[in-house]
Amino acid sequence: MRPIMYYKPKINCQMRTVCSNLPSKAAIRERTTPAFMNAARMYCIKVLFFLMLGLASLTATSQRVLVIYDVLGANTSNLVTAMQNAGLTVTLSSVPEFQWNGTNPALTNFDCVVHLDGTSYGSPMPLAGQTALMNFVNSGKGYVASEWLAYEILQHLTMIDLILVDRNIGANGTVTYNQLGVPHPVLAGIPNSFSFDCAYNIGPAHSFATQPVTVLMKDHNGTDAVIVRNVGLGKVVYFNHAGNYEDNSSFNTLSNTNVQKLYINAAKWASIPSPVITSFTPTTASTGITVTISGSNFTGATAVSFGATAANSFTVVNANTVTAVVGAGASGSVSVTTPGGIASLAWFTYCTLVTPTISISRNSSGSICAGTPVNFTAVATNEGASPQYQWKKNGNNVGTNSNQYSDAGLLNNDVISCQLTSN
């Protein structure tokens, strides 16, 4: 008697200096009730994603900036001119900041506000103006400010999330700003260290419960001097100098070219909407798999990463969608970098690509006779938790989704195979 059949496996894998002439802290602004202040500040929305600070270079677009002034002097004029020469479209408010109520002018046609408060610290901004600024920033716009807003904190509780420093006391004279080695667009073209004359705050950056600040520069006293923060969907830049304080003195703070450059960089960076990731699919993937990332403000994206490992490639489909091919990744957050910042969303799982294998054995060795029942068993590796088995006889589907198959009707030269689909 001779053999009447043979068998072979088939695999189908589908993976998947302290000055007394300055306003004293006892006069107007002391944080004597830190618990109250913390409560006042803690109304930021907790979100699943967190916006990181952008490292990308600034693009030369004509952002529309409203300067809400404190005094219309030469230094304000010099700052406005420098910003215009840098390509920004700048408009002055119709009234000084202590009269601005959100309608003079309205913020509808602006991308960023520069708020000067160096000379008008005795008169707070109207509540309607403060509310307008908060809504403006929360909607995704930019805000650039300086002292003496921290001095006036108790009169500006409505916009407290935009005031990034705490006040201990004030000082004036020559101040030196020093970079801390944190790469950021606000520091583009800024010397590692430079000095200028001004009045300035002495006190730390405020610690917020959500959306924390990043300190980019400190002054010679070790005081936090240049601070950035994401607020809602928008961005805030804050300086500890007091701008136009004693505008008719020799300070001329806003005429200093490095100070002007900080304002220009801040307005450009804060004007660019921050990217937001709302979801991505699939949430588990291996090298070579394409992941679709959904959100907003993806235009001009310069990088995509999975678990801090760069994607092999990516395509900006539109402002709301990016597709990216997973590289040699790691589990963690999916991140998209744009000129406006870095958006990240957690819970990506990276899995290593494995190749499943399958072999077939039978319950008897040697030759068999026609009509003899034969039991076949498929032995698989890397098959996953729920593998799918498809037995075939001469190319036709037989049996069930099982690693075993029996046949009592074999004929000469019949071929038994098994197709494995791993998960």
Please describe what this structure looks like:
40% of the residues are buried. This protein is rod-shaped. Strands 5-4-6-7-12-11-10-8-9 form a nine-stranded mixed sheet. Strands 3, 14, 16, 17, 20 and 21 form a six-stranded mixed sheet that branches. Helices cover 11% and strands 36% of the residues. Strand 18 and strand 19 form a beta hairpin. It is mainly beta. The protein is built from four helices and 27 strands. The N terminus is likely disordered.
Summarize this entry quickly:
It contains 4 helices and 27 strands.
Please provide the count of β strands. Answer: 27
Assembly annotation: single chain
Number of helical regions: 4
Q: What is the share of helical residues?
A: 10-25%
From the alpha carbons, calculate the radius of gyration and give it in angstroms.
Answer: 32 Å
Classification by helices and strands: mainly beta
Strand content: 35-45%
